[in-house]
Amino acid sequence: MRVQDATPLVKIRNLHFSRGRKVIFSGVDMDIPRRKVSAIMGPSGTGKTTLLKLIGGQLKPAQGTIEVDGQNIHSLNTKELYQLRMRMGMLFQSGALLTDINVFENVAYPLREHTDLPESMLRKLVLMKLEAVGLRGARDLMPSELSGGMARRVALARAIALDPMMIMYDEPFTGQDPISMGVLVKLIRSLNDAAHISSILVSHDVKETLQIADQVFVISDGKVVESGSPDELAVSKLDWTQQFVKGLPDGPVPFHYPADDLNEDLLNS
Amino acid sequence: MRVITDYFVKLGRKVIAALEKTGRGHMVFVKMIAGFDEILRRPSLLIRQLYYIGVLSVLLIGLSGFFVGMVLGLQGFYTLSQFGAEASLGVMVAASLVRELGPVVTALLFAGRAGSALTAEIGLMKATEQLSGLEMMAVNPVRRVLTPRMFGGIVSMPLLAAMFSMFGVLGGWFVGVGLLGVDDGTYWSQMQGKIDLHEDIYNGVIKSIVFGVVCTWIALFEGYDSVPTSEGLSRATTRTVVHSAFAILGLDFILTAMMFGE
């Protein structure tokens, strides 16, 4: 193992973030390792996507630091930030493909923006990336002609176009049929292992995520409540983790939204 | 007492929100203009927007101009003929068009057609995370997406206003000369003699450039700053049209006072 491999890829310390009056994070500490699939899990609305945006420098924390590959992302100037972003890929929940250009051009987009590659080389690269996600044959389709799963695969091909050091996946499994889900699970794992890309996966799909993750962070109430390997989480003693992993309807996260006593409520017409 | 303090708290929040929005609007404007070198690097971005914003508006502008010119010809003829001055119809039609109606009506139509489309487009790009996606690909969305549209609007507006005036003059000619019997030569020669290049035409062009800047700015900013939901987007589109209309009419008064006031 090289020395660099030992340092975390993303180091988060004492992260605080609020949206208006709603506190999203209050003191998150996290070390995301290199070359592994790290999953950040938690119920909807816990700010998992927000965390990715904070790591990508799209949002600024109220307090605390985030270091990506040793650089404090919020102290970089625009140029340095953009240079760092070229080494970060992000897969948005919607795919975020540009709707006015076709699949080929979408994947070629970052290459055209950031490199001066000759057209023939660019074509080969794009086709190779599309081949990796199994959509070389779909190169001439427009984004509107793709299914949700295909759109995410194209977006994945685009995210790896510049051979980034890491990819952040925002809810990659949401709204996918079982086949697309299986394809994405396999792709995330194989890209991580074959291309040595570190993966940060944000998801609430427990089964799929635990299947491929090396390390899992469970977030609740603005903090990391537990972290460890999927096996460790499966035998966790924490009620909260048990409820989340097993999908129990009631527990530390109550079934009922906080409300007055039912009888009183019904009688007070 | 509580009601009164609540009222002031609410009022204060609204004022602060409005000031913040104005600030954001100006920041975006500066960034859009500062991104001009992006257009020099890739002129194709601007050309594409000139097509969508300008060329696709030509039919609407031309047709509207022709109808407005016809009405001017008709109204002008009846009023002028009461004083036996129908020979001045050409001047009246042309002066009204190049000084006022050309820039103003073009800008209003522009806000309705191109402005609302720009807001919807940018707002949808935001809602579907395309703008965030660009940022994460290390592409600045303001320079890459907004700047070409901004300059597309600034260049298109004066050209569209000129076309509006041209079709208007033809519309006035069609009614005045073709239908109501004003002398053809008088219509054109009076116009040629009385319309001044600086006083009338340049001032009209300046107006339309100002309207182009303001309308496109409002449209782009409203889209960029919209709440990315269907309701937020529909509100932003409405605001674009309403704010643009107010801005155009208000600015028209100020510019007219500055240009033609003593």
Commentary on this structure:
The complex is a heterodimer of chains A (269) and B (262). Chain A is of the alpha/beta class. Chain A has a domain at 3-87 and 198-267: P-loop containing nucleotide triphosphate hydrolases (Rossmann fold). Chain A has helices at residues 3-6, 48-55, 78-85, 103-114, 119-132, 148-159, 178-194, 206-212, 230-234, 239-246, 262-267, and strands at residues 10-19, 22-32, 37-41, 63-68, 71-72, 88-91, 166-170, 198-203, 215-220, 223-228. A six-stranded mixed β-sheet of chain A has the order 6-7-8-3-9-10, sandwiched between helices. A four-stranded antiparallel β-sheet of chain A has the order 2-1-4-5, with helices on one face. In chain A, a hairpin with a 2-residue loop joins β9 (215-220) and β10 (223-228). In chain A, α5 (119-132) packs across α6 (148-159) and α7 (178-194) packs parallel to α8 (206-212). The longest helix of chain A is centred in the last third of the chain and has 17 residues, at 178-194. The radius of gyration of chain A is 20 Å and the shape is globular. With 262 residues, chain B is mainly α. Helix content of chain B is 88%, strand content 0%.
Brief write-up:
The complex is a heterodimer of chains A (269) and B (262). With 269 residues, chain A is α/β, with parallel strands linked by helices.
